[in-house]
Amino acid sequence: MKRADDRIMPLANPEAPSRVSGVAKRIGFVGLGLFALLGLTSGLSGLLGFAGLYLVVTGLWAIVRQRSWLGPMRRRLGAGVLASGLVLTTVGGAVGSPADAPLPTAASPSVSASQTRTATTAPSPTATPTPTPSEPEPVATEDVSHVAPGPTPQTALAALDLLAVKGRAPKTGYTRDQFGQAWADVDRNGCDTRNDILRRDLTGTTLKDGTNGCVVLSGALADPYSGNLIAFLRGVTTSTAVQIDHVVALSDAWQKGAQALTLGQRTDLANDPLNLLAVDGPLNSQKGDGDAATWLPPNKAFRCQYVARQVAVKVNYGLWVTSAEHDAIARILSTCPDEPVPTGTAPLPTVAASAAPAPAPAPAPPAPPAPVAPAPVAPPATAYYANCTAARAAGVTPLHTGDPGYRSGLDRDHDGIACE
């Protein structure tokens, strides 16, 4: 019986290390050749990168496994190989850095738009190449999508497109007082607006003494609405032959945007010479608060000027038109597409010159034709009307001095005509 200590342990094969080392060397050289082949196909940077990677792997293997084709000093050599591999990998990456490559240009078809934007915005150590003389500079074209709008159209037909098209708003809350004092002296020339317009539109006028050349007593009007010549004679029964019309009626303006204006802006609208014309009295009453869709002057030769003035007023004060009104104006202006937008009227006559004494008395003007007396108005049931609204409802406006129901409280400008 053998003792335990008499057991003989098998000895390791002394030739095994050499065989392993030989196999490792062959594998190492084959791997080195493969890495060199791959590196050569990808340029210098690829060669250095693959070689460095191979050395890193070899060094790590020698240190960790302690077996390598590096021989007996594999651990020490493995550390050196590992360090060399890291250096080669770093150098290969630096050699192949995109910083050394030329920036792509927009002319290269293979470069995408995003790559072009990235390349042109990134800082580059190289100077930007300048175009050669044979390559002409590109001509910049104007970006018309951001051009500032031009001036206000010069024709009424073009200005019509600036007006919004909406429905008529309710007339709720409308009174003449919403547009300030009737015939206020907004231009501070010492004369009310009504007499300013009479002096502007009438010819052969005579002025009342003691009014600084303001109040018109008589004259002649070439009426634009009818085309007739109308004699004007100031008086209780004769002044209504010529009336001052708001081209854009105040009630119409109220229902088409004027409610949003301030009192001062509405006062300007009611006294704007652009919105005022001296016209035939009965035709003015016939018009009422109608717009171009419901009333036009009988004188067809004046219709283009008439609607052009309405367009100008509504553009100036930010008012709108109804669809029917827009179509009516467009239909008229289509017959006169070059009708200009009126930007104003001739300056109103000043009162200072008329107040100066004349060196010699002027000859008396010819007597105007005899006015036609208006039909008598039936007296109201009450002695006086409470206000002009009640008088209009009764159909007796305007009221003149001596008419039943007339009182000075209704005659704001004290010209003998109330509720004009």
Distance between the termini: 152 Å
How would you sum up the major sheet?
A: 3 strands, antiparallel
Overall tally of domains: 3
How many helical stretches? 13
Q: Any idea what the shape is? A: rod-shaped
Radius of gyration, in Å, reads 51 Å
Poorly predicted runs of 5 or more residues: 98-128, 131-150, 353-360, 373-382
The average pLDDT value, as a whole number, equals 75
What is the helical fraction, as a range of percent? 25-40%
Structure commentary:
By secondary structure, the protein is mostly helical. It folds into 3 domains: 77 residues; 197 residues, no CATH class; 47 residues, no CATH class. 36% of the residues lie in helices and 7% in strands. The protein is built from 13 helices and 7 strands. It has a 3-stranded antiparallel beta sheet with strand order 1-2-3. A two-stranded antiparallel sheet has the order 4-5. The protein has a two-stranded antiparallel ribbon with strand order 6-7. β2 and β3 form a beta hairpin. α1 runs antiparallel to α2. The radius of gyration is 51 Å and the shape is rod-shaped. The N and C termini lie far apart (152 Å). About 16% of the residues have low confidence.
